[in-house]
Design goal:
The complex is a heterodimer of chains A (about 575) and B (about 625). Chain A folds into 3 domains: about 120 residues, Ubiquitin-like (UB roll) (Roll), CATH 3.10.20.740; about 70 residues, Alpha-Beta Plaits, CATH 3.30.70.20; about 350 residues, Fe-only Hydrogenase (Larger Subunit), Chain L, domain 3. Chain A contains 18 helices and 17 strands. The longest helix of chain A is centred in the middle third of the chain and has 21 residues. In chain A, the strands form 5 sheets. In chain A, strands 2-1-5-3-4 form a 5-stranded mixed β-sheet, sandwiched between helices. In chain A, strands 11-10-13-14 form a 4-stranded parallel β-sheet, with helices on both faces. A 4-stranded mixed β-sheet of chain A has the order 12-17-16-15, sandwiched between helices. The radius of gyration of chain A is 25 Å and the shape is globular. Helices cover about 30% and strands about 15% of the residues of chain A. With about 625 residues, chain B is α/β, with parallel strands linked by helices. Chain B has 4 domains: about 90 residues, NADH-ubiquinone oxidoreductase 51kDa subunit, iron-sulphur binding domain (de novo design (two linked rop proteins), Up-down Bundle); about 140 residues, Fumarate Reductase Iron-sulfur Protein, Chain B, domain 2, CATH 1.10.1060; about 160 residues, FAD/NAD(P)-binding domain (3-Layer(bba) Sandwich); about 140 residues, FAD/NAD(P)-binding domain (3-Layer(bba) Sandwich). In chain B, about 40% of the residues lie in helices and about 15% in strands. Chain B has a 5-stranded parallel β-sheet, sandwiched between helices. In chain B, strands 6-14-7-8-9 form a 5-stranded parallel β-sheet. In chain B, strands 10, 11, 12 and 13 form a 4-stranded antiparallel β-sheet that branches. In chain B, a hairpin with a 2-residue loop joins strand 16 and strand 17. Classes of the chains: A alpha/beta (about 575), B alpha/beta (about 625). Chains A and B meet through strand 7 of A and loops of B.
């Protein structure tokens, strides 16, 4: 312990604590902007500077540790002047048209500036120009970038893809795509972690809401039947920015909100997740039975960020990916075929919308070869959780007062196995539950595979299924993924089946989820999903009556010819920018 | 009003003069990797501020040039803009009335040709080719990439052994380098912005002086692979050390009686005492390197041939150094009393002696080796030692401190004298060196002023001994005959040490670069070890010892403070022996000097990227 004084008040604090944490601990918090715990402690914005008795210059609190006897002043006249001036300097190069910024109200720069009560600035405004391909799913607005470098650091340290870098030096130093590339030519996985860790509106997803709500949008076309599906992880996060508690933000209330927005059918991607388990689980068992014909491990394929990563970084391993499509694409394909036939709706009149916690899915839906329903697109539009929240806010829906509404049929029933797709380990657990059944004819105890739960970046387990030991691993975060792949290549580990999610914590921490600066909510949201699983009547994908029905009426059996045509895809049929 | 008055500087002028000094030091400390166009633009603004404003090209032209450069930097220029920059700069260079204008324009002109690709990148893509890959200036400039701020921080805490461990991650010769490294790391030290560079070599000296014996790290499991190293100098031994740590068995074939190469045979013991060099060599050998001394690689009897090495080993590293002496090509060069520097220093190193007692010695050359033989001759009792050099003393390639020490020890420097012949008596004994006085002239392409003929008559410098120290060559013939490519007298190796068309053969050090510094040879050994490891199918990682944690910088002020120099024994005393000239730093000196380090690994860009490479 060290003894320090903050603003004259004596405090005892653990050795090695940063001044920033010490001040927060002593309830005299210091504002910060570029700081991101453990990831970006570079002291670039100089907002967190404090005065230390006996030290001539002001010191950033974020990356300096307390020393015995230190006397810290967090609000001295010099500190106040410095903080104010540095914020003004940042604002002089920031596009301050806050009302037209999607992060207004959720912007760390805005908060720091508002807290200071800035009302005018002496500095000439010098706003960088924007240059960005507007059709790319990830948008960078250089006029709103404050060069905190967090995006660079997240991509380097957590995702290990190094897409961003500092470009230029001197007064023109800014964040750019590494190696002077255009973003469309880079290996970006579109995980969106740079977006969720951006303190301002400099990074965002491409906003596609107008394709629904404008005068020329799908909602305005009387001939269109709008069919929306919501991903498992969306239900765990959608209420966060709408003032709902986790208890209030139930899936059924979300259904009510979607109905109120005007969607004709509201389906649950949990159904698609259950369908994925049937196909991917069967595929895994098929590969196990013909071990010699395949390279192991088999990798899950439901995360398009991961698929992009693998294709750009380790193209030689593409055949190890399951050929199963991601749940929303499977569901999109059967919506425009099975559902259309069943309901007597002409498939060209169906407009499929997915609400996803994900940016990469915007790209996935645009892959030409993913479409198998015979229509131009299986999924017409992908919206992130954030875009959905913005649509709800735009319509001024008082969601708290909406009464809970059931999902529509036939894709309205999902099992607990489907819902945990949204958390890291969930796909693996769901697959193991059904694989066990498919091999033994008996259901395991539903929580038998709890070992693959939790926020560890790399988990592994050995599962015994009727005398066969199956080695599985679960990774989330692309940095962890690269470590796992390198360990596989160096033959330090070997597995039969590996689940990969590009975002740390899985889809719950997805790049399309609501943003809370400085907080990582994948754990809390994941807990919510496991709660929904625990309290679900159905906890096995193969027990989903709608799943049983679709195989009976339409798909015959998993891996059937029809299932292959609609639910599986060729990962070689499209290329990443630098893929040979 | 008086008719004349004495000019005194105004307060403003005094301040500005100080700012000029600040600026000079600041430019010295420019980090590598800045945008050259941005810098050209910034320099141009300074030049424009120096303009008196009388003439059009300078008053208006420099401003318009500046605007054009800004257009390039802002991504608003076209290829035609670059042409316009060139035209404008050429006209200013041709027509400005004084140097303020024409030299400023020439600077821009040089840039447009020198880094035209960077101009074009800005125009085409709005981007810059420059990038701050290694933002810590000392680390960037150390050929071996030693973690300098890291070991200075450890030295500051008195953790000398940890400092040695950290240095050895990138350089297994901490002691030799502490004594003789040319310290390119100090050139752009950011401390120059405040006062002057940190005495980095001094900090390394502190580490090795106070560390005691530091054992080598644990080796990786044996791979069963064998690597032959030809030449046991700094490059060969560095490669051997890292290859051993990676689990490969290396055997060093050394022609001489001792290991160490030029560190042993080229550097006199008063600069690098033998027992200090052995500290490094013993540590390297402790990893299990096999050594074959007096074992020349060749096709002769009792020699091992290149073919045998390639057959018996999985990889071969050629690091034979540059040990042959260059001839000066003067009449009388064969006379008795004419010796080469390599020969003289080699004889001394092997314990032999060169009888110079009471003799008059003339040394031809101006490099570090010339200073080494000069100072050795003084110690051997020569009555007078004169260095004859065709350029000026300031143009010498020897380190200024070496020249200073030689003069302090009694050497005479005859600058601007070009040797033209050696006179000998009827018994072929040297009697004098005849030199032609020169006059310093125009600056050549290499940026150095060249010596030009002067009308002064020849000068006869009577002497008994002439030592030729004008550089070394490389014994390439044998390797050339065995199919190793040779270009311009050196072995042609890639920048990753591999030799073209000779799989498994690598080369580095002086035999590839020509005579250079120890640290460059060491760096080449490190590069070779990494690439040989990969060639052998492995990817062993050399990393910092887990227990060596680099201390976080202390929160403190950095007032301007003079640089501590390493003290030397009195000249009158040290010329009597070959013992070490330099004295150890005291602990209080170490504390103060280590505290001057500005920790660029933490402050500035270093904390974002490249501040610390913990492994390779």
């Amino acid at each position: 312990m060290v003894n320090i004084k903050i603003n004259g008040i004596a405090v005892q604090i653990k050795e090695g604590t940063t001044i920033l944490n010490a001040a927060a601990y002593a309830d005299m918090p210091v504002p910060s902007l570029c700081y991101l715990k453990g990831i970006n402690e570079i002291g670039a914005c100089r907002i967190c500077v404090v005065e230390i008795k006996g030290v001539e210059r002001l010191v950033p609190a974020c990356n300096n540790i307390v020393q015995e006897g230190m006397e810290i002043y967090t609000n001295s006249p010099r500190v106040r002047e410095a903080r104010r001036t540095n914020v003004e300097l940042i604002l002089s190069q920031h596009d301050c048209h806050c009302p037209t910024c999607i992060r207004s109200g959720n912007c760390s720069l805005q908060k720091v500036a508002n807290d200071l009560g800035l009302y005018a600035s002496e500095y000439e405004r010098d706003i960088p120009k924007k240059h960005w391909p507007v059709t790319f799913p990830l948008i960078r607005d250089s006029s709103r970038c404050i060069k905190c470098m967090r995006c660079i650091q997240i991509c380097d340290k957590v995702q290990n893809l190094n897409i961003w870098d500092i470009s230029k030096t001197g007064s023109r130093a800014t964040v750019g795509v590494a190696h002077n590339l255009q973003i469309t030519q880079a290996d970006c996985a579109l995980c969106g972690q740079c977006i969720t860790h951006c303190p301002t509106g400099a990074l965002r997803e491409r906003d596609d809401t107008l394709r629904l709500t404008s005068l020329h949008g799908a909602f305005s076309d009387p001939g269109k039947v709008t069919v929306v599906q919501i991903a498992p992880a969306v239900r765990a996060a959608w209420g966060e920015e709408l003032g709902l508690t986790r208890e209030e933000a139930t899936p059924k209330r979300l259904v009510a909100a979607l109905k109120a927005l005007g969607f004709d059918y509201v389906f649950d991607t949990d159904f698609g997740a259950d369908l994925t388990i049937m196909e991917e689980g069967s595929e895994f068992l098929e590969r196990l039975q013909h071990r010699e014909a395949y390279t192991f491990p088999m990798f899950t394929s439901c995360c398009p960020g991961w698929v992009r990563f693998l294709k750009s970084q380790y193209p030689e391993m593409i055949d190890q990916l399951s050929t199963a499509k991601s749940p929303h694409q499977m569901q999109g394909a059967v919506t425009k075929t099975y559902f259309a036939e069943k309901m007597g709706i002409s498939p060209e009149n169906i407009y499929n919308i997915s609400v996803m916690p994900c940016v990469a899915k915007k790209h996935e839906a645009d892959i030409g070869s993913i479409n198998d329903s015979g229509q131009e697109k299986d999924i017409d539009l992908v919206l992130t959780t954030r875009e959905l929240v913005r649509m709800i806010r735009a319509d001024h829906l008082d969601v708290k007062k909406l009464s809970e509404t059931e999902f529509d049929t036939p894709f309205g029933i999902g099992t607990g196995a489907g819902v945990i797709f949204g958390a890291t380990g969930g796909v693996m657990e769901a697959a193991l539950r059904s694989c066990y059944y498919l091999v033994t004819g008996k259901n395991p105890y539903p929580d038998a595979f709890y070992m693959v739960r939790g926020l560890d970046g790399w988990k592994e387990a050995c599962i015994d299924i009727q005398g066969t030991t199956v080695h599985v691993a679960v990774v989330s975060g692309l940095g962890n993924t690269r470590k796992l792949i390198k360990a596989l290549q160096n033959q330090e580990v070997s597995y039969d089946f590996v689940e990969v999610m590009a975002c740390p914590g899985g889809c719950a921490g997805g790049g399309g989820q609501p943003i809370h600066d400085g907080e990582e909510l994948a754990g809390v949201r994941g807990d919510n999903l496991y709660f929904l699983d625990r309290t679900s009547e159905l906890r096995f994908s193969h027990e989903n009556p709608d799943i049983q029905k679709i195989y009976e009426e339409y798909l015959e059996k998993p891996l059937s010819h029809k299932a292959h045509k609609l639910l599986h895809t060729d990962h070689h049929a499209w290329k990443m920018p630098n893929e040979k | 009003m008086s008719r004349l008055s004495i000019t005194t500087k105004s307060a403003a002028q005094t301040t500005v003069e100080r700012l000029y000094k600040d600026l000079e030091r600041r430019i010295v400390a420019s980090p590598p990797g800045l945008c050259p166009v941005d810098l050209a633009s910034a320099f141009l603004k300074l030049c424009h501020a120096q303009t008196c404003g009388k003439c059009v090209p300078c008053r208006i032209g420099l401003g318009q040039l500046s605007n054009l450069l800004d257009q390039v930097l802002d991504g608003e220029a076209t290829m035609e803009t670059i042409d316009l920059i060139e035209t404008t700069a050429r006209v200013i260079a041709d027509t400005a009335d004084c140097a303020i204008g024409f030299s400023a324009a020439s600077m821009v002109l040089k840039g447009v040709t020198g880094f035209r690709d960077d101009y074009e990148e800005h125009v085409r893509y709005g981007k810059c080719l420059a990038s701050l890959e290694q933002p810590v200036p000392c680390v960037a400039l150390c050929p071996a990439g030693v973690d300098i701020p890291g070991y200075i921080a450890l030295v500051a805490e008195g953790r000398y052994a940890d400092a040695v461990k950290l240095i050895r991650k990138d350089n297994p010769f901490p002691t030799a380098c502490a004594l003789v490294c040319e310290h390119p790391c100090e050139a752009r030290c950011r401390r120059n912005m405040l006062d002057t560079s940190v005495n980095i070599r001094g900090m390394k000296l502190a580490a090795v002086d106070y560390a005691g014996k530091v054992p080598a790290p644990v080796k990786a499991e044996s791979t069963g692979k064998k690597v032959a190293v030809i030449g046991g100098g700094p490059s060969g031994l560095s490669a051997a050390y890292y290859l051993q740590l990676m689990g490969h068995q290396t055997t060093v074939y050394e022609t001489h009686k001792h290991l160490g190469g030029m560190l042993y045979y080229g550097i006199p013991s008063y600069r690098l005492p033998r027992e200090r060099l052995d500290e490094d060599i013993d540590n390297i050998l402790s990893t299990g390197v096999e050594v074959r001394l007096e074992n020349r690689v060749g096709d002769g009897k009792d020699q091992i041939s290149m073919n045998e090495l390639r057959e018996n080993y999985d990889a071969v590293y050629i690091s034979i150094g540059a040990h042959t002496d260059k001839k000066v090509g003067l009449t009388g060069e064969d006379a008795r009393g004419v010796i080469s520097a390599v020969e003289m220093l080699g004889t001394l190193a092997d314990g032999g002696t060169v009888d110079l007692k009471g003799k008059r010695v003339t040394v031809i050359g101006g490099g570090n080796v010339a200073m080494d033989v000069t100072r050795s001759a003084i110690r051997l009792g020569a009555s007078e030692v004169t260095v004859v050099y065709r350029r000026r003393q300031v143009d010498m390639t020897a380190l200024p401190e070496e020249v200073r020490s030689a003069i302090a020890e009694g050497a005479q420097i005859r600058e601007l004298h070009a040797p033209i012949r050696i006179e000998e008596d009827e018994e072929h004994q040297v009697t004098a060196l005849v030199a032609q006085p020169k006059m310093i002239g125009l600056v050549g392409r290499d940026g150095r002023p060249a010596p030009a003929d002067s009308a002064e008559p020849e000068v006869r410098i009577p002497c008994d001994i002439v030592v030729v120290a004008i550089g070394q060559g490389i014994e390439t013939h044998y390797f050339e005959d065995r199919g190793i490519p040779i270009k311009h007298g050196v072995i042609a190796a890639e920048n990753w040490s591999a030799v073209e068309n000779a799989p498994g053969v690598f080369a580095g050090g002086d035999c590839v670069t020509g005579p250079a510094t120890a640290i460059r040879a060491i760096a080449a050994g490190k590069v070779a070890a990494a690439n040989i490891d990969n060639y052998l199918g492995y990817n062993h990682i050399i990393s910092i010892d887990k227990d060596v944690r680099i201390p976080a910088p202390k929160i403190k002020d950095y007032p301007s403070c003079g640089r501590i120099h390493i003290k030397e024994r009195d000249a009158a005393c040290r010329i009597k022996d070959f013992d070490a000239v330099e004295c150890a730093l005291t602990e209080e000196e170490i504390q103060q000097e280590a505290g001057r380090c500005l920790r660029c690994d933490h402050f500035g860009f270093g904390i974002l990227k490249g501040g610390r490479e913990t492994k390779w």
